[in-house]
Each structure stands twice: as structure tokens, then as C-alpha cells.
Amino acid sequence: MIEVRALTKRYGGTLAVDQLSFAVRPGQVTGFLGPNGAGKSTTMRVIVGLDRPTAGSVTVAGRPYRDHPAPLCQVGALLDAKAVHRGRSARNHLLALAQTHGIGRRRVDEVLDDVGLTAAADRRAGGFSLGMGQRLGIAAALLGDPAVVILDEPVNGLDPDGVLWMRNLLRGLAAEGRTVLVSSHLMSEMAVTAEHLVIIGRGRLLADTTGAELIARVAVGSVLVRSPHATELAELLVADGAALTDVEPGLFRAAGLAAERIGELARAGGLALHELTPRRASLEEAYMELTREAVEYR
Question: How high does pLDDT run on average in the chain?
């Protein structure tokens, strides 16, 4: 398990992370979300020992990353897919990492095959496309067969087949009981992949919850209403606190009232209803509402 306790990180006069606390548990994919500049990358760098916290602590499996005798076998991380020696082949890049932990050549070939790079294993990494570089970074993260996997924007540069592969990979790692932390700006992917969400803004925790709970707590859904008495019904709904948006004559969306309440008001007013369709808010809408005041770059 990853445990972040009252983490604070300053860079000179800039407060990047402010008293941040959360836990990432094994057996599920945890999405790590937040606007640009929220402190996600800084937090991940502190987790794997690339930055030291100004205050607070971060542990993986009960100890700081630096204290693990074989860190690649405990934590696999992809923070920057470009962090490779451009003149080395994909295989030699992984072999160099493997030799620091006594990992054999067979394991290198295994992870190259797992990420689909066997045919390109002897090509220089400097000539890789963005998607191929991502795959090589993921291979490096999986090299030590780690119990904890941390990936920063892993689908960046992947084609639709690659995105589906990544989705299945993350689910598979979690199903094996591993701890999986994934940072992403793609809400559609997080909605179908992440079972838990940690959302931060301006370095502070905004939510530590599931997607369904976040939507229920933050986002306001709407109801599509069709009626031959749309004008009269709209007046009743507005008087009861609804916000309306016209779609077409006789059809509008109502936010702020449940479908049941709209039906009751229509019945009480003797107004016919031809359609009453609740629309559940999306994870993206809930996320945008939650982080509205935490966006640094508008």
C-alpha cells in the first residue's frame, strides 16, 4: 500500500503540495486526478524518492522507497517516457535497468513481448514514436514484477488499440492484487478503469472516493422533459427551483429536480407528459464541478 501522510512540498516560494494525505490500496486501480499544476507529478516524484518532502512522509509497503533493498521489484514507475538513452536500443535500455537488480535477460524479453515491442527491440529508442516510447516506459515499470505500479499519463500517444490494451493491463495488474496508481486527464478512461479516485487541486486533497460517489455528491444531473404543455410545465418547474434549457419546441432539459418530482408537479397541474428521461451526470462533469475553483491555468 502507498501511504501519503500530511505531505508538503515547496520549491522555493512555490507551494506545490499542501498537507496532502491519502492511501492507495492493493487490488484496485486508483485514478490520481487534478488540473495542470495541481501537484500530481510532484507527489509521484516524492513517492519514488526523486524529490524529498518538505514535511510529512510517504511510504510504500511500510517504508520509504529509498529504503527498499530492491526498489524495482517493489515499485515500478513510468513518470517520463522520454527518460531513456536515445542511442540505446529498447532491449539494451531494459538490460541496463535489469543489471542493477540482477534481473535476467529472459525477463527483459518477457516484458518486451508483453508491451508489443519484440519486433522493435533492437531499434534505437531515440527513433521511437510517442506511443512506442510509452510502451517502453511501461516495460521498464513492469521489469521487476513489482507489487506497486505507478503510471503518469500512460495512454499518452497510444492509438485506440493501445488504449484498450492499457485498460486491460491495468485491470489485470489490480486483479493480481497489485497496488496501481494512475494519473490521467482522460476522464472517459478513468470512468471505465479506475475503481477509486484521488483528486487534488492546488496541492490539496479535494476528494478520496469512487466515481459513483463523486457523481452523486458533486454533479447535478438533468431530466429530459417532453410535453404538449411545455410552457405551462416549465413555469411550474421553475417555481419549484428547476433550471431549464430549451432543446426544441415542446422539449427541454430540467436540472435541479428529480424525475419523480417533475412527474408529481405535472400530475398536480393536470399537464400531460410524453417523455421524462433522467440523465446521469458523467465523471467528467463531476470532476469539472469539483475542480472549478482549483484550475491554475484558465
Answer: 93
Angle at 74 between CA 70 and CA 85, to 5 degrees: 70
CA 25/CA 15 separation, integer angstroms: 27
List of the chain residues with pLDDT < 50? none
Q: Determine the structural domain holding residue 185 and report its residue range.
A: 2-216
Q: Are residues 171 and 246 in the same domain?
A: no
Task: Please give the distance of CA 17 from its chain centroid, rounded to a whole number.
Answer: 18
Residue 296 lies in a domain: no
Q: What is the pTM of this model?
A: 0.84
Assigned domain for 298 exists: no
| Assigned domain for 75 exists | yes
Please say which residue of 216, 239, 270 terminates a domain.
Answer: 216
Give per-residue pLDDT as tens, 184-236: 988 989 999 999 999 999 999 999 999 989 988 876 678 999 999 999 999 99
- Give dist(CA 19, CA 7) in Å, integer: 5
